[in-house]
Amino acid sequence: MPRPRSLTPDQLASAALSVLDREGLAGLSMRAVAKELGMSTMALYRYVDDREELEGLLVERVLSAVDTTPPEPGAPWDDRLRIMVGRLRDTIIAHPAVLPLTLTHRHRSPSGLRWSETALAILTEAGLDGERRVLALRALLGYVIGAIQLEHLGPLSGAGTVAIAELPPDAFPYMAETARQARSVGVEREFFGGLEVFLRGLGA
């Protein structure tokens, strides 16, 4: 039976994103999205086969906001990579709960694939190929994903840093001192400072 045309994929994804932003990943379900749309759960299955398909639409809805246009070709490769990483971060931190889904559905999102294609072109121009280019892209994505998770789940300004700073210095001298210093590091400095460490190693 043909699916009804009254709702578009973008409308479905927007409803799912509203649920995700409000209730987190644990609250994302077919039932919750159907309720957001004002329909029964069974009616939602007339538009998508299962939750996996809905998640794929949701991921593409978020990542479609990323500008994947190659930065100015005359700029240094590391500057262009900083721009690409900044674009991706700006998009994801607006909807941090989507982060785990971007990993699961990375091969289903045209926008995510275009971002990686542009990043790979920059890495290639920097002289990386073969296995080294594979590892570079994976490490770059690993840094971005991990840094965003740390920013939202364990921020330097949070209670965890305060607790670590108060650890007994005889047992944890480096942890306690580092945590005390960490409290003055802003989120932008934390993210892009860590990215600088990665890029310096990549260019070595």
Task: Give a written overview of the molecule.
The structure is a single chain. The chain has 11 helices and no strands. With about 200 residues, the protein is mostly helical. Helix 1 crosses helix 2, helix 1 crosses helix 4 (about 50-65) and helix 5 (about 75-90) packs antiparallel against helix 7 (about 110-125). The longest helix is centred in the C-terminal third of the chain and has 24 residues, at about 130-155. It is flat, with a radius of gyration of 20 Å. The model has no long low-confidence stretch (mean pLDDT about 95). This is Regulatory protein, tetR family. One of its GO terms (molecular function) is DNA-binding transcription factor activity. It comes from Streptomyces melanosporofaciens.
CATH fold field value of the largest domain? Tetracycline Repressor, domain 2
Q: Find the count of extended strands (DSSP E, 2+ residues).
A: 0
SSE topology string: HHHHHHHHHHH
Biggest sheet overview? none
- CATH homologous superfamily heading of the largest domain: Tetracycline Repressor, domain 2
Q: N-to-C terminal Cα separation, in Å?
A: 58 Å
Structural domain count: 2
Please name the CATH architecture of the largest domain. Answer: Orthogonal Bundle
What is the mean predicted local confidence, pLDDT? 94
Tell the overall outline: flat
Task: Determine the strand fraction and express it as a percent band.
Answer: under 5%
| Fraction of residues in helix | 55-70%
State the CATH class of the largest domain: Mainly Alpha
Can you tell me the residue ranges where pLDDT is under 50 for at least 5 consecutive residues?
A: none
* Count of separate DSSP helical elements: 11
Radius of gyration: 20 Å
Class by SSE composition = mainly alpha
